[in-house]
Amino acid sequence: MVAEGEGDPFSGGRFEAARERPRGHSYTAGVMRQAIELVVKANCSFRGAARALEICTGESEGSCPSLWSVRNWILRLGLFELKRPKGRGDDWVWILDHTIQIGSHKALLILGVRLDRLAHRDFTLGHQDVAVLGLDLCERSNGERILETLERLAEEVGEPRELVSDAGSDIKKAVELFCDQHGPTDWIPDVSHRMARVLESELKGDPQWEGFLSEVAWCRNRCQQTPLSPLLPPGQRSKARWMSCKPILTWAVKLLENPVPEWADRRQFAGLFGWLNGYRDLVQECWLMVHMGEEICRILKQGGIASGPLEECRQTLEEMSTSPRLRRQAQGIRPYLDEVESKLRPGERLLGSSDLIESIFGKYKLLVERSPHPAMSRLILAIGSLISERTPALIRQAMETVSLKSVEEWFGQRIGHTSCSRRRTALV
Fold first, then answer.
1. Which of 174, 173, 125, 139 is nearest to 154 (CA)?
2. From CA 185, how far away is CA 89, in angstroms rounded?
3. Which residues span the domain enclosing 250?
4. CB 166 within 8 Å of CB 194
5. Which of 164, 195, 225, 411 shows the smallest number of beta carbons within 10 Å?
6. Quick one: DSSP state of residue 64?
């Protein structure tokens, strides 16, 4: 560690752009930014980021930030993003969802974006286009608890124009109660989750579909240690499985449409994949069903919830309804289009997707998956760092505003002892 007042080992080369040190720190804002970017953008571990700085600068280990310094910078930046003023307005769009890990705690994340920002970005949002409005950690999440969080947030930033989320029971109850009490606010269910629900209502419990999935699982187990392993079917997900049917169906369609590869033994191929011929019609029809849902999602995600895209969706459903099953699926989708259209004001365009919050959760889980015991910990604050612009000036402000003690206090008020600390105490 460089002592305060000594020369900065990173003052030359690529780090010259930001040589000012935050008050009370040994490293410059430029060094901090490089370390943080290595973790949140390049997916390095904390230790990997510290080692990467050593390699890039040619400095000794003692002259470079430790992994604990990098970790603490990310936590402080994350808390800064959570606490900094967001500004009041009546054009906020709130995107909310839960994430869970090992243990009993859940995290409710609420992201916010202004409608004019949405229009400026043409509804193509990146992580830096949103703000962290709320992050609530609790052991028992229900509609009442979420409603309290939403009401508290409305007092801080104003009533939102729109709430976007999936239709999980606790969130759905809370947002419906909130919208009842706040007239200008409407809830738009996430289009991807709604299309998955429609697909589920058509296929769940269908004996032929269940038989197809069983054959896929059998085929995957039998195929793994054979020369035909390059043709292995995709694994089936246990969560969000109705949103991830396409890889399995695409695999089946391609095997049915393409000839046996030259390098494959025909008898072995027939033994492992010949069963697919009995599901040819089902596979093709289900693939078209998934494609129908994807087309509706594409139109509404690219164009937003507006009169033009909704009319395009209805036209697409008419064109794709070429069988009784596809017509039933289209009939299940139309109520969603009518529901969201009824909430539009003249000339308005709203957000219909919560994909961004799912993307941020995915990035966060990549960060914590290296932990030997990935329970809820202080690293939940890294979500704030993921959406931060991470400029040297902002990082400097964060380091001078938020102390490590305030991070500990914030987490201690919400969880206190982590699952990992309890484990260490019990298994000492």
1. 174
2. 12
3. 191-351
4. no
5. 225
6. S
Q: Say if 305 falls within a structural domain.
A: yes
Q: Could you read off the pLDDT of 288-326 as tens digits, one per residue? A: 999 999 999 999 999 999 999 999 999 999 999 999 999
CA angle, residues 103, 383, 407, in degrees to nearest 5: 80
Rounded-to-integer distance, Cα 337 and Cα 349, Å: 14
- Residue of 357, 318, 348 whose CA lies nearest to 91: 348
**Burial of residue 120 (number of CB atoms within 10 Å: 0-12, 13-18, 19+):** exposed
Rounded-to-integer distance, Cα 417 and Cα 398, Å: 26
Other beta carbons within 10 angstroms of residue 245's beta carbon come to 22
Report the alpha-carbon distance of residue 111 to residue 95 in Å, rounded. Answer: 5
User: Can you tell me the distance from the alpha carbon of 156 to that of 148, in angstroms, rounded to the nearest whole number?
Assistant: 13
Token pair of 262 as six digits: 């030259």
Would residue 85 count as lying in a domain?
no
The pair of three-digit structure tokens given for residue 142, joined into one six-digit string: 């229900």
The answer as to whether 307 is a domain residue is: yes
Number of neighbours of residue 152 by Cβ within 10 angstroms: 11
Q: Are strands 92-100 and 106-114 parallel, antiparallel or unpaired?
A: antiparallel
DSSP 8-state secondary structure symbol assigned to residue 205: T
**pLDDT class for 345, splitting at 50, 70, 90?**
very high
The amino acid sitting at 380 is I
pLDDT digits (tens, 9 = 90+) for 386-418: 999 999 999 999 999 999 999 999 988 877 665
For the chain, the domain total comes to 1
Total-model pTM = 0.87
124 in a structural domain:
no
Distance CA 286, CA 283 (A): 5
Which two three-digit tokens encode residue 415?
């969880």
Whose structure tokens read 């064109």?
319
